[in-house]
Amino acid sequence: MEEITIHEFEFALINEFFTELERQGPGSPEETIRALGFIGNLSNKTKIADLGCGTGAQTMVLAQNTEATITALDLYAGSIAKLNVTAGKLGLQNRVKGIVGSMDNLPFQNEEFELIWSEGAIANIGFEKGLNHWKGFLKKDGYIAVTYESWFTDERPAEIEKWWVDAVPEIGTIGHNISIMQKTGYIPVAAFTLPENCWIDNYFIPQKARQEEFLKKHTGNKTAEDMIAFMRREADLYSKYKQYYGYVFYIGKKM
Ligand code: SAM
């Protein structure tokens, strides 16, 4: 039987599942703050774009740890609605605005931002394509900070190689990705791996209860059942092969 890939699931179903969770990808406030520590010259004049923001877990961390104005963009309207409600509850509505849009066709001005942020989302358009396209919206000397799936080793078992090449065809090693960052016009500033708690405590464990309720709600829906089976496999593969891959934060400065 052909293995199912995430691309075959309905976008709306995936988002229905994930918008009820705090995060839609691996990460943590501590690692967002750590990445922020590499960015210079932030002030109350700074404009940040957070692309593929989901419901905004990292957007709120950015807002609470800077004085910047943040435009958070995601393709899924349900996530943006939730993000704007959260910003209001936290009293951040004057500095945080969620908008619906696609990261491969950004509705921004050239050189509008001092900082472009994106956690767990650039693979949707491709690492190189994203870095290239987004650079036009950054001011000179502006920064980019993205997390991206990366190989930790030059070789790995065939089972995990196939899984990730199906999901993210251009997945590469950390060294390869840094060279792409340089090739696309950024000075690499830092790269660090996300620790395991970002995957296990903040991504896989919160999914468990949600998977049960989701299966109940969608009983008999083959797409929903396949989607949950895919997520469970993703978690099993992570515990089996986590020494070979993970998310890496890449931080660069536009040349
Ligand atoms: N940054 C959030 C986090 O870490 O919790 C969400 C990460 S989630 C793995 C990826 C996000 O990218 C989803 O919210 C999805 O809707 C969004 N996305 C996928 N394709 C997109 C596109 N073309 N433009 C904008 N957002 C997109």
TrEMBL record:
<dbReference type="Pfam" id="PF13847">
    <property type="entry name" value="Methyltransf_31"/>
</dbReference>
<dbReference type="InterPro" id="IPR025714">
    <property type="entry name" value="Methyltranfer_dom"/>
</dbReference>
<feature type="domain" description="Methyltransferase">
    <location>
        <begin position="43"/>
        <end position="163"/>
    </location>
</feature>
<protein>
    <recommendedName>
        <fullName>Methyltransferase domain-containing protein</fullName>
    </recommendedName>
</protein>
<dbReference type="InterPro" id="IPR029063">
    <property type="entry name" value="SAM-dependent_MTases_sf"/>
</dbReference>
